[in-house]
Amino acid sequence: MQFQYRKIPLSLYIHIPWCERKCPYCDFNSHQAKQEINEPRYVETLLTDLDADLLDFGEAVRDREIKTIFIGGGTPSLFSSKSYQILFRGLKERLDFAADIEVTLEANPGSSEAVKFAGFKEAGINRLSIGVQSYNQQHLNRLGRVHSSTEAIAAAKYAKEAGLNNFNLDLMFGLPDQTLEQSLSDLAQAIKLQPTHLSCYQLTIEPNTLFHHNPPITPKEEALWDMQEALQKTLLEHGYEQYEVSAYSQNSRQCRHNLNYWNFGDYLGIGAGAHGKITTIDGVYRTWKIKHPNSYLTKTSKLGGKSQVAPRTLTFEYMLNALRLNNGFSISEFEARTAQSEHSISALIQKHLKLGLIDKTNSQITPTLFGHNMLNNMLEDYLEHSQSE
After folding, report:
1. In this predicted model, what pLDDT tens digit does every residue of 339-375 receive, in sequence order?
2. Cβ atoms within 10 A of the Cβ of 237, count?
3. How far apart, in Å, are the Cα atoms of 201 and each of 175, 225, 232, 253?
4. How many Å apart are CA 87 and CA 200, to the nearest integer?
5. What is the pLDDT of residues 246-265, one digit of tens each?
6. Over the stretch 58-76, which tens digit does the pLDDT of each residue have?
7. Cα(first)–Cα(last) distance of the chain, in Å?
8. What are the pLDDT digits (tens) for 74-127?
9. Which residue of 40, 101, 167, 368 sits 20 to 30 Å from the alpha carbon of 253, by its own alpha carbon?
């Protein structure tokens, strides 16, 4: 089978690595801005980075529309709207934007960033993802967040005033010393602000973070289950449909960029520490860029590298994302994006059907509620499958 790469949606990820202060739970490639950021230089380097990828992949990306853009970090809202206007002029000179392109920017709720929202919209950004995490000031302090609960509420109002009505609010649960009632109070406040999308996920302690070196006391497993079930019930009652493990949306306003990731779509990745995935006629390639922003800005030659994904691991990588989705995946899409046949996974499909982990309707595979709870077990099966080929 051949890769049908021209049928695979193409996105763009842009990484802004600076933040005002590193949060103790954060394991992303983010660096505290200890001096004034040279925004013009970084924008110039981003475009140089993109030029190199376009040249490197040539036919595989030429004439393919960019369906979505996501600007992540760090804290991308630290940059001025003028910098984004310059950046987007450069992007449009190099790329074909889809008419209905979704352009998301991650934003800090602090008022110093929120007042920029109108300028962001003018630059071409049409969706915000606001990193609230909690509306409880005590919990915000424990998480090391630089914004206040008042600013977190104001940020959503700023977004609406700027005409950015399509926005996501990020919420965490399972915070240090958090009760069920406090987690529901956070959600109630978020719902009151009428976001089109809510990300609601459990705090996890990741390696190489301050919380990993000095772990806080978090709720026990039984309490976490109670929180998750109560939060999911409340979200459903208010019209937020769960479409992924921690993602909920109203009126079919799912994050199309993240859906492209989870559906094993392609994406260019530019910026310090950015990653990308590009499908060519002969295989799937992963790309990466230099992580430290100072090195990224001063590098005079290649800003990163690429490697081809071994065919035997493609199935596992596909399932790692697709099985997170409530709607799962279709067999035809699996074949088109991995160049593997249905026969290659038929034994595992039958096994998971018998165990009640998935349902199959025609050629659509969907995880059951039990399957979502046992996701790691299914993925272990696919990992073993990829290693045995």
Report:
1. 889 999 999 999 999 999 999 999 999 999 899 889 9
2. 9
3. 10, 12, 11, 18
4. 31
5. 999 998 899 999 999 999 99
6. 999 998 999 999 999 999 9
7. 17
8. 999 999 999 999 999 999 999 999 999 999 999 999 866 677 899 999 999 999
9. 368
The mean per-residue pLDDT over the stretch 262-278 comes to 97
Q: How far apart are CA 144 and CA 146, in angstroms?
A: 6
Whole-structure pTM over 0.70, yes or no? yes
The confidence score (pLDDT) of residue 389 equals: 62
* φ and ψ of 244, to 5 deg: -155, 170
Averaged pLDDT, 279-292: 94
Residue-range domains of the chain with CATH: 5-260 (3.20.20.70), 310-389 (1.10.10.920)
Q: Are 303 and 289 in contact (CB under 8 A)?
A: yes
Burial class (CB within 10 angstroms; exposed 0-12, middle 13-18, buried 19+) of 370: exposed
Residue type, 315: T
**Burial of 37 from C-beta contacts in 10 A (0-12 / 13-18 / 19+):** middle
Distance CA 107, CA 258 (A): 17
pLDDT reading at 197 higher than 70: yes
Q: Rounded to whole angstroms, how far apart are CA atoms 76 and 103?
A: 13
241-244 and 247-249 as β-strands: parallel, antiparallel, unpaired?
A: antiparallel
Instruction: From residue 39, give the alpha-carbon distance in Å to each of 35, 86, 220, 316, 355.
Output: 12, 10, 44, 39, 53
pLDDT, residue 262, reads 95
Q: Residue 169: beta bridge partners?
A: 130, 198
